[in-house]
Design goal:
eight-stranded mixed sheet; about 30% helix; about 35% strand; Aminopeptidase; 6 helices; alpha+beta
Length: about 180
Amino acid sequence: MSLDRQPTLRGNTINLRPLTAADWDKLYAVAANPKVWAMHPMHDRWQEEVFREFFDDALAKGGALAAIDRASGDIIGSSRFQAYDPADGGSVEIGWTFLDPHYWGTGANREMKRLMVDHALASVARVDFRVGEANWRSRRALEKIGAQLSPDRIERAVLPGIGEAVHLYYEMTRLDYERILAKG
């Protein structure tokens, strides 16, 4: 079964839908807050020209979703399905996620991830999450949803104007997720 990387997913408080070029202004209004990127390796992504490159890349690669607050209808962030690989039961990366700081600690990120993991694991055997080593906020959030650190998967890259960035991988298999759901 092939993974639909551009679904519309409905949750209790958050909806996810394919990101479009028309979302630029509203999404950049969220991304323009430097606080959003403070722990991220690309901590300058709040700058319009840097975010434009990120946004255009999201549209070009597909898999990008806009996060919508169901109550207000506002765009509050974004996430992506990237690096889909159908081999060996299939895997996909969920990431590139950011949220308006007003939604931090509200359960919005957890709901986004749950919707995306539910959707992905119906089609693939494993979901991967790539996160900056120093991004403790995101790392704790992944651990709260049951993702496991993969100690043998570390990515190092030199980013222009930033320096070395170290990314860690967390993963969740279909079996892991079924166990988490069974625990309630």
